[in-house]
Fold this protein.
Amino acid sequence: MIYIDPGSDKHIIESRQLESEYKEACQWINELGLEYKRTRFGSYEKDFDAFIKTGGLKSPTENLKTFFNAHLEANELIRIKNAFDSLNSDYAFEAIKKTVSGQRFRNSCKSDYSRDFAFELSMASRFLKAGYEVDVRTITDLIVDIDGRPLYVECKRIKSANQLEKRVREANEQTRKRVESNKASKAKSFIALNLTDVINPDAMPMIASSLGYYKNASAQTLKDFIISKKNSLSKKKHNKCLGVFTEFTTQGFINNPESYAFVHLREGNFYQYPLKDNDRQFLDSFAHKLGNQNLL
């Protein structure tokens, strides 16, 4: 198992700066011809205002869940905007139109294609931040150029543990067909899974006394889940697939009088399949670059 965030840095953003970045991202939606106030991101703006001005309108638990749901979505939009606002405007319009639709709360319905697509964009942003070229014309079938070698990435947002084995099997079958259709013998693939809704289905925030404790708890939670699901993660594996990238995002609060802070942590690791030496070297050449990335 490869940890892509070993010894990751603290990326500290002042709340006012984060607020400014979110407003810029919402304005970006407007500039693409989509009125953000009519989307779920307009609702998140209202959630922030209600939490700051009144402490929320519901019970303390519900108020926190509403705030942290908005906090997660705001961070994701900022990340996507900063990675994609330089791309062709026609593509950006179609991409954001798909992303801003959907329900206000991520776990309020079984099918939410807007967040499925947002995860694909988020994965693409990891590679863009790492300095690689991404074929955005077929974003649902992510293709990355890794130093001249094509890499196919199949993205799946998993909603329940019962889906895991089936979705991995489907993804491996899809990546096998896609790699075989590429005449380049060096083409490889991997599967990317977002497990946030499986590991923390109620979207409960994490409260910790220090950032170090928070990060360790998050990393251990994902590691324990991956180890317990090794068989499911290997279904229909093939020699052109490097393994399974897993992502788990948490929201929380550092409850320390010396350093109170809200936390947005995007945990990631790579469950690699048995690889030949040259394939392992290829994976090592880019895997760690996908982590420790500043939101801005």
Remarks:
- The first strand starts at residue 2 and ends at 3.
- The chain has a mean pLDDT of 87.
- The radius of gyration is 19 Å.
- Residues 60-84 form the longest helix (25 residues).
